[in-house]
């Protein structure tokens, strides 16, 4: 066997195999590898978009939570202010009502004092007439001495 012929035959088989591989085997492999790389790149891009969306959503939720807390704090502050206003209004109304009741009580008391004085004057006048009657041992005519009794009543 000749070394050159064997070498030449091996060289021809090698080139035929290389050509066959480059023509029929290599394109589907490179296509599959390219598709796989494309899918991986798309997956990584989607993961990045998802991560970015997650960060945005977290930021929006934190903003919404902060805004909600601010609104609730404002509402609580407004409610406290309104409660203070209501308390002050109630105090003012209670004070006005108390003053009205006190004034009414004073007026009623003055009326009662005046009525009591009138009754006391009448009773003192009757006692005076009764006492004078007993002292004089005679009867005093109330109709005849009405002016005198009125004067006595005024003096008391």
The N- and C-terminal alpha carbons lie at a distance of: 172 Å
Order of helices and strands: HH
The number of distinct β-strands equals 0
Strand count, sense and barrel status of the largest sheet are: none
Query: From the alpha-carbon coordinates, what is the Rg to the nearest angstrom?
Result: 60 Å
Residues in β-strands, percent: under 5%
Percentage of helical residues? over 70%
User: Mean pLDDT, rounded to whole units?
Assistant: 87
Structural class designation: mainly alpha
**Spatial shape:** rod-shaped
Q: What is the domain tally? A: 1
Q: How many H/I helices?
A: 2
Indicate the low-confidence ranges by residue numbers.
Answer: none
Walk me through this protein's architecture:
The structure is a single chain. The chain is an all-alpha fold and 156 residues long. It has one domain (3-155). The protein is 92% helix and 0% strand. It contains 2 helices and no strands. It has helices spanning 3-136, 146-155. The chain is rod-shaped, with a radius of gyration of 60 Å. It starts with a helix and ends with a helix.
């Amino acid at each position: 066997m000749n070394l050159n012929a064997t070498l030449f035959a091996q060289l021809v088989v090698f080139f035929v195999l290389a050509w066959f591989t480059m023509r029929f085997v290599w394109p589907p492999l490179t296509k599959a590898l390219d598709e796989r790389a494309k899918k991986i790149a798309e997956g990584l891009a989607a993961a990045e978009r998802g991560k970015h969306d997650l960060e945005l959503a977290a930021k929006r939720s934190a903003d919404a939570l902060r805004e909600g807390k601010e609104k609730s704090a404002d509402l609580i502050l407004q409610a406290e202010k309104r409660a203070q206003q209501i308390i002050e209004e109630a105090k003012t109304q209670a004070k006005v009502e108390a003053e009205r009741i006190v004034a009414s009580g004073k007026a009623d008391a003055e009326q009662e004092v005046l009525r009591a004085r009138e009754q006391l004057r009448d009773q003192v006048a009757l006692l005076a007439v009764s006492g004078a009657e007993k002292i004089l041992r005679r009867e005093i005519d109330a109709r005849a001495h009405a002016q005198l009794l009125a004067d006595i009543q005024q003096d008391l």
